[in-house]
C-alpha cells in the first residue's frame, strides 16, 4: 500500500473522530447528552488502558513469554472485581471534591498541599514520557511495516520523522478537543466519546484478525490449541515471581495511571456506571486478550524467522495477502495509540497547569496587581503549551532510547513509575492518620529509587548510567548496583525495582505519617476523604471570612468567565435569600466557591487564590476544636431535647392521671352533694309533715301532741348532728382542726369510751375482753379526739354485731413508736366487697333506720386518725369485724400533724 | 451524627445486600488465588510448558469471575441507588 494512501486513511479516520467529538461536544452543551453519559460510553472510555502496547505489544509479549502477557489484563480485572472496596470510594471522593487529576486528589487530601501536587505531576510526567514514546514508536513502526512499496521506502526509512509528525498531529487534536473550554468539572464529553469510538475500532480490529487466524488460517479452536502446544518454548514457563508481581503491578497501574484516573474518576458522572464497568471492562479486556496467543502462535509458525513479533497483528494479514484486514488492523493500532496519547497528554497538561504553572504565576502576580486579566485564557494557554510539552518529552524519550525492541518493557517501566503513588493514594482513601510529610517522603523516596533502578537504566548503558556503573555499581560499590540494590541480585530487574521502590516508599510514607503532626487543613481533608460515605455536610475549611463579595467576584470571573461567575454568585445569593449578585461571605459560600474554582484549577490553587483575597481566614487547630465542640453541642442539645421530650411524655401521663382523678372526684362530689341533700331532706320532710299536722289538726290529744313534738325534736337533733358531723369532717379534711395534745394514759381513754358507748342500745349486753396491763401506756395525743374514734368503733359494734352472745375484744400493742389498738367483735364481720367502702362518706352497709346515723362516722374517724398522725383500718379474717386504730405514741405537735393533713389533702384532690 | 446504634439484626432484603457486599469484597481475593494456581502445577522445566491447557484454564477462570461480578453488581444496584450512606455507614 502506498505511503500517501496510508496517510490519507489516517487523516480520514481522524476527521471522523473530529466529527464525532464535536457532535458530542455540541450535544453536551445543548444538554441532550444523556446518551453520552451512559455506562456503555463510560466502560468503552476505560479501554484507553489498552494502548498500542496492547494492540501490538501483547502479541509480541505472548510470542516471547507465553501466557505472561495476560498478567497485564488480569491485574485490572481484579481491581474491577473489587470495585466495591476501592474504586467506588475513589470515584465518590473524586466527584464530590471535583478532583481534576490524580495529583489534585493527592494534593487535596493532604491539606491542599501544592508541594505534593508538584511531586506527583513530575512523577507522572517522568512515567508518562516513556509511555507516550511507546505509542509514537508503535505508530511509526506500523507505518514502516505497512509501506512495502520500494519506491516509497525512503519516506519511511526514518521512523523518527513519522513519530515527529504523529506527535504534532496528536498534539493538535488534543488541543482542539481537550482545551476548547475551561470546563467547570474538567470533563470532556467530546474526547470521551471519541475515545469510546476508538475503543470499538481497536476491539473490532483485533477480533477480526483473531477470527481470521483461528478460523481461516487454522481450522478452529482445537487446531489452535494444538498449534500453541507445538510452538510452546521453554521460555514460556510461567515464572512465579513475575506472574504474581506483574498481576499486582498492573492492578496498581490501573488505579494510578494518570490517564486511567482521568477516565475512571474525573470523567465519571454516576456510581451506577461503575457498577456496569465492574463486569463490562473485564469483559472488554477478556475479549482483547482472547486472540493474542493464537495470533502470536500462528505468526511464529508462518512468518519468516527474525520478524518482529510486536508487529504480527499487522504483518500477518499482510503476509497472507489480506490487505483490507491489514488496513483495519492498522487503524486499530492507530486508534489505540491516539486514544492513549490524547487522554494521557490531557491529564498531564491539567496537572502541569494546575500544580506548576498557575501557582507560579499567582506567586509572581501577587506582588503586582492581583485582579487584572482573564485567567481562563492563561490557564488554557498553559494547558495547550503543556500538551505540546508532554508530547515533546515523549518524542525525545523515543529519540534518546532509539526505540526499544520490546514494547512491553517500556510500558512496564511506566507502570512501576506510577505505582509510586499507590501508598499515598491508599492512605488518602483509608487512613486518616496519613500525613502530608509522610506522603511527600514516600513519593520522593519511591521516585528516586524508580529513577535509579529502572528509569535511567532503561535508556541503555552509556546514556545516563555508564556500563561500568551498571556492572559494578557507582564508585565500585557493589551493593549500590542499579539492578542489584543491597545485594538483591536474584530478582528480575523489573521486580527488583518494583520491590525496592514500593517497599521503601511505603516505609517512608508510614514513618513520616507516624512522626509528623498534620496541619488542621490536612486533618479536615483527611476526615472528609476517609469518611466520605458518612458525610453529613461539607467540612468547614473557612471560618473567619474577612473579604467582601465584591473582591471575590473578579477572581471568580477570571477563572470561570464573567457570565458563569455571575450566575454562580447570583444563585448563591438566592440560596441565602438575597437579591442581586453579591451573597454574604459565609463559610458555606466560600466552601462552594472554592469547590467551583477547584473544578477548573485544582484544589490547591483554588484554595491559595481564595486565601490570598480572603486573608488569613484559613482554619487553625482552634477552629477545628470549635467545629468539634459545635458538633458536640449539637449532639448534647439533641440529647437534651430527647430528655425533655421524655419528660414531657411523663408530665402528660401525670396530667392524664390527674385528669382522671379529677373526673372521679367530680363524680364523687356530685354523689356527695346529692347524698347531703338526701340526708338533710329526710328529717326536714318529717319535721315539716308533723309540724303541719300539729298546725292543721285542732283536735289533738296531748299524748299525740307530745308524740309529734318528740318526733320533731328527734329529727332536729338528727339534723343538728348531721350538720355537726359535716362541719367536723370539713374541718378535719382541711387540717384546720385544733388539737389539744397532752399526755394521757391510754387505759383511761378506753374506759371512758367503753362507758360512753354503753348508752347505745343499752339493752344489749356486751362482754368486753381486755388485757389491762398493755393498756397502761402513757401517750401524748389529743385525748378527746382519740376517745371519739374509740366510741365510734365501739358503738358501731354494738349496733351491727348480731351475735347472740356479743363480745368485744380490745387488744393494745406497741410497735416502733406506734400504738395499735384492735377492736374485734364476734359478729359476722364485713363482707369483702364492702370493706373498701366503709370509710367513705355516707356509706352504710345496712338500712338507715336501723343504724340511725348519717354514715359519716367512720369517715370522720379516718380523718381524725390522719390528723393524729395515725390511721384506722379494717383487719379482715379475725373472726368478726375488726378495726385497727394506730397512732404514734407521742404526737409531734406540728410536722406529724400537718403531714397526714397534707396527705389527706392530696388524697382528696 | 445520630446517637442511635444501628440495628443488630436486619430484614431479609438488607441482609442479602450486606452479604453481597461481602461477596464483592472477597471476590478479587478468591480470583487471585485461582489465577496463581498454574504456578503450583508441576511441569518439568526443560520441556515445553502446557500453555494450551493453562490458557484454557485461565480464560475459563477469567470468564467465570466476570460472570460472578456481573451478578454481584446487578444485586448491588439498589444499594447504590438509595442514598448509599445508609447501607455503607457501618461497613468501613
Describe, in plain words, how this protein is organized in 3D.
The complex is a heterodimer of chains A (909) and B (92). Chain A has 909 residues and is mainly α. In chain A, β4 (807-815) and β5 form a beta hairpin. The longest helix of chain A is centred in the C-terminal third of the chain and has 76 residues, at 621-696. The radius of gyration of chain A is 52 Å and the shape is elongated. Residues 847-851 and 895-909 of chain A have low confidence and may be disordered. Chain B is mainly α and 92 residues long. Chain B is 65% helix and 0% strand. Chain B is built from three helices and no strands. In chain B, α1 (12-35) packs antiparallel against α2 (51-81). Classes of the chains: A mainly alpha (909), B mainly alpha (92).
Strands, helices and their partners?
The complex is a heterodimer of chains A (909) and B (92).
Chain A: H1 3-29, H2 39-46, H3 52-65, H4 71-81, H5 87-96, H6 102-109, H7 114-146, H8 153-156, H9 159-178, H10 189-217, H11 221-231, H12 240-256, H13 258-266, H14 271-290, H15 292-302, H16 312-319, H17 323-366, H18 375-401, H19 407-419, H20 422-430, H21 436-458, H22 467-472, H23 493-515, H24 520-530, H25 549-560, H26 562-575, H27 587-601, H28 603-614, H29 621-696, H30 702-733, E1 741-745, H31 746-757, E2 767-770, E3 778-782, H32 783-800, E4 807-815, E5 818-825, H33 848-851, H34 857-867, E6 871-874, E7 882-888, H35 895-908
Parallel strand pairs in A: 2-4
Antiparallel strand pairs in A: 1-3, 4-5, 5-7, 6-7
Chain B: H1 12-35, H2 51-81, H3 84-88
Helix pairs in contact in B: 1-2
Give helix % range of chain A.
Answer: 55-70%
Counting helices, strands and paired strands, the structural category of chain B is: mainly alpha
What's the gyration radius of chain A in Å?
52 Å
Q: Beta-strand level of the residues of chain B, as a percent range?
A: under 5%
Largest sheet, spatial ordering of strands of chain A = 2-4-5-7-6
Work out the number of β strands of chain B.
0
Shape of chain B: elongated
Q: What is the CATH-assigned architecture of the largest domain in chain A?
A: Up-down Bundle
**Approximate shape of chain A:** elongated
Spatial extent as radius of gyration of chain B:
20 Å
Order of helices and strands of chain B: HHH
Give the structural class of chain A. Answer: mainly alpha
- The proportion of residues forming helix of chain B, as a percent range, comes to 55-70%
Mean pLDDT score of chain B: 77
Q: Gap between N and C termini of chain A, in Å?
A: 113 Å
Number of helices of chain A: 35
Largest interface: which pair?
A-B, 50 and 48 residues
Sheet-strand content of chain A, in percent, reads under 5%
- Oligomer category: heterodimer
Amino acid at each position: 500500500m502506498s505511503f500517501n494512501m496510508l496517510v490519507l486513511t489516517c487523516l480520514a479516520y481522524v476527521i471522523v473522530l473530529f466529527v464525532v467529538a464535536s457532535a458530542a461536544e455540541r450535544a453536551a452543551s445543548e444538554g441532550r447528552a444523556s446518551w453520552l453519559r451512559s455506562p456503555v460510553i463510560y466502560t468503552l472510555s476505560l479501554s484507553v488502558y489498552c494502548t498500542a502496547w496492547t494492540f501490538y505489544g501483547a502479541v509480541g509479549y505472548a510470542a516471547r513469554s507465553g501466557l505472561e502477557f495476560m498478567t497485564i489484563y488480569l491485574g485490572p480485572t481484579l481491581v474491577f472485581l473489587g470495585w466495591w472496596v476501592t474504586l467506588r470510594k475513589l470515584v465518590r471522593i473524586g466527584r464530590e471534591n471535583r478532583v481534576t487529576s490524580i495529583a489534585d486528589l493527592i494534593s487535596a487530601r493532604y491539606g491542599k498541599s501544592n508541594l505534593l501536587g508538584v511531586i506527583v505531576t513530575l512523577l507522572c510526567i517522568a512515567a508518562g514520557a516513556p509511555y507516550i514514546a511507546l505509542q509514537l514508536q508503535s505508530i511509526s513502526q506500523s507505518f514502516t511495516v505497512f509501506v512495502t512499496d520500494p519506491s516509497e521506502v525512503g519516506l519511511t526509512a526514518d521512523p523518527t520523522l513519522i513519530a515527529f509528525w504523529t506527535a504534532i498531529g496528536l498534539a493538535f487534536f488534543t488541543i482542539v478537543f481537550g482545551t476548547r473550554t475551561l470546563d467547570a468539572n474538567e470533563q470532556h464529553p467530546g474526547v470521551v466519546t471519541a475515545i469510546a469510538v476508538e475503543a470499538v475500532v481497536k476491539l473490532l480490529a483485533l477480533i477480526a484478525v483473531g477470527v481470521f487466524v483461528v478460523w481461516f488460517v487454522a481450522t478452529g479452536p482445537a487446531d489452535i490449541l494444538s498449534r500453541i502446544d507445538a510452538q510452546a518454548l521453554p521460555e514460556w514457563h510461567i515464572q512465579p515471581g513475575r506472574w504474581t508481581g506483574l498481576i499486582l503491578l498492573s492492578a496498581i497501574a490501573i488505579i494510578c495511571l494518570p490517564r486511567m484516573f482521568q477516565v475512571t474518576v474525573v470523567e465519571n458522572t454516576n456510581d451506577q456506571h461503575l457498577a456496569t464497568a465492574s463486569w463490562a471492562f473485564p469483559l472488554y479486556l477478556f475479549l482483547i486478550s482472547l486472540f493474542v496467543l493464537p495470533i502470536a502462535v500462528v505468526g511464529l509458525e508462518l512468518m519468516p524467522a527474525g520478524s518482529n513479533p510486536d508487529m504480527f497483528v499487522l504483518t500477518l494479514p499482510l503476509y497472507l495477502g489480506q490487505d483490507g484486514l491489514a488496513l483495519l488492523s492498522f487503524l486499530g493500532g492507530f486508534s489505540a495509540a491516539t486514544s492513549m496519547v490524547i487522554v494521557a497528554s490531557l491529564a498531564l497538561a491539567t496537572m502541569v497547569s494546575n500544580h506548576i504553572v498557575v501557582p507560579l504565576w499567582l506567586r509572581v502576580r501577587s506582588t503586582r496587581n492581583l485582579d487584572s486579566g482573564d485567567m481562563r485564557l492563561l490557564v488554557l494557554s498553559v494547558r495547550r503549551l503543556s500538551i505540546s510539552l508532554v508530547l515533546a518529552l515523549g518524542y525525545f524519550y523515543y529519540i534518546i532510547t532509539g526505540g526499544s525492541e520490546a514494547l512491553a518493557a517500556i510500558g512496564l517501566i511506566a507502570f512501576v513509575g506510577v505505582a509510586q503513588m499507590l501508598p499515598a493514594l491508599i492512605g488518602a482513601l483509608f487512613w486518616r492518620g496519613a500525613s502530608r510529610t509522610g506522603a511527600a517522603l514516600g513519593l520522593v523516596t519511591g521516585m528516586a529509587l524508580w529513577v535509579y533502578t529502572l528509569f535511567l537504566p532503561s535508556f541503555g548503558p552509556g546514556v545516563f548510567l555508564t556500563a561500568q556503573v551498571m556492572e559494578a555499581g557507582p564508585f565500585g560499590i557493589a551493593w549500590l548496583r542499579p539492578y542489584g540494590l543491597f545485594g538483591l541480585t536474584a530478582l528480575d530487574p523489573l521486580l527488583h525495582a518494583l520491590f525496592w521502590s514500593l517497599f521503601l516508599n511505603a516505609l517512608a510514607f508510614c514513618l513520616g505519617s507516624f512522626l509528623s503532626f498534620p496541619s488542621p487543613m490536612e486533618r479536615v481533608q483527611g476526615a472528609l476523604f476517609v469518611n466520605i460515605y458518612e458525610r453529613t455536610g461539607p467540612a468547614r475549611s473557612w471560618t473567619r471570612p474577612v473579604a467582601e463579595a465584591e473582591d471575590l467576584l473578579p477572581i471568580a470571573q477570571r477563572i470561570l468567565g464573567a457570565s458563569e461567575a455571575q450566575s454562580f454568585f447570583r444563585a448563591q445569593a438566592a440560596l441565602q435569600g438575597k437579591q442581586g449578585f453579591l451573597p454574604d461571605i459565609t463559610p458555606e459560600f466560600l466552601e462552594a466557591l472554592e469547590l467551583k474554582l477547584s473544578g477548573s484549577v485544582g484544589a490547591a490553587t483554588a484554595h491559595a487564590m481564595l486565601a490570598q483575597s480572603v486573608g488569613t481566614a484559613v482554619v487553625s487547630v482552634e477552629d477545628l476544636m470549635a467545629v468539634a465542640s459545635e458538633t458536640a453541642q449539637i449532639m448534647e442539645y439533641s440529647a437534651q431535647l430527647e430528655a425533655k421530650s421524655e419528660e414531657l411524655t411523663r408530665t402528660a401521663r401525670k396530667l392524664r392521671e390527674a385528669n382522671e382523678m379529677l373526673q372521679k372526684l367530680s363524680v364523687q362530689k356530685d354523689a356527695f352533694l346529692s347524698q347531703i341533700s338526701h340526708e338533710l331532706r329526710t328529717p326536714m320532710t318529717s319535721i315539716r309533715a308533723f309540724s303541719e299536722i300539729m298546725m292543721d289538726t285542732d283536735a289533738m290529744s296531748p299524748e299525740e301532741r307530745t308524740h309529734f313534738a318528740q318526733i320533731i325534736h328527734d329529727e332536729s337533733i338528727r339534723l343538728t348532728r348531721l350538720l355537726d358531723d359535716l362541719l367536723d369532717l370539713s374541718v378535719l379534711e382541711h387540717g384546720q382542726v385544733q388539737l389539744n395534745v397532752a399526755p394521757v394514759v391510754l387505759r383511761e381513754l378506753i374506759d371512758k369510751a367503753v362507758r360512753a358507748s354503753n348508752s347505745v342500745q343499752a339493752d344489749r349486753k356486751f362482754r368486753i375482753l381486755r388485757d389491762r396491763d398493755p393498756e397502761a401506756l402513757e401517750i401524748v395525743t389529743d385525748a378527746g379526739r382519740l376517745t371519739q374514734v374509740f366510741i365510734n368503733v365501739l358503738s358501731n359494734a354494738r349496733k351491727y354485731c348480731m351475735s347472740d352472745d356479743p363480745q368485744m375484744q380490745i387488744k393494745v400493742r406497741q410497735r416502733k413508736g406506734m400504738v395499735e389498738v384492735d377492736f374485734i367483735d364476734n359478729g359476722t364481720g364485713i363482707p369483702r366487697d364492702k370493706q373498701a367502702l366503709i370509710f367513705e362518706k355516707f356509706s352504710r352497709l345496712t338500712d338507715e333506720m336501723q343504724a340511725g346515723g348519717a354514715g359519716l362516722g367512720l369517715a370522720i374517724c379516718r380523718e381524725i386518725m390522719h390528723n393524729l398522725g395515725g390511721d384506722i383500718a379494717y383487719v379482715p379474717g379475725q373472726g368478726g369485724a375488726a378495726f385497727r386504730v394506730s397512732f404514734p405514741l407521742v404526737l409531734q405537735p406540728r410536722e406529724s400533724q400537718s403531714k397526714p393533713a397534707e396527705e389527706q389533702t392530696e388524697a382528696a384532690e | 451524627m445520630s446517637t442511635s446504634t444501628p440495628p443488630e439484626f436486619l430484614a431479609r432484603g438488607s441482609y442479602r445486600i450486606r452479604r453481597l457486599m461481602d461477596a464483592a469484597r472477597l471476590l478479587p481475593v478468591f480470583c487471585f488465588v485461582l489465577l496463581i494456581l498454574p504456578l503450583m502445577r508441576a511441569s518439568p522445566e526443560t520441556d515445553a510448558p502446557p500453555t494450551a491447557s493453562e490458557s484454557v484454564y485461565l480464560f475459563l477462570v477469567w470468564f467465570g469471575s466476570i460472570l460472578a461480578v456481573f451478578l454481584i453488581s446487578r444485586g448491588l444496584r439498589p444499594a447504590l441507588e438509595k442514598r448509599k450512606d445508609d447501607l455503607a455507614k457501618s461497613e468501613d
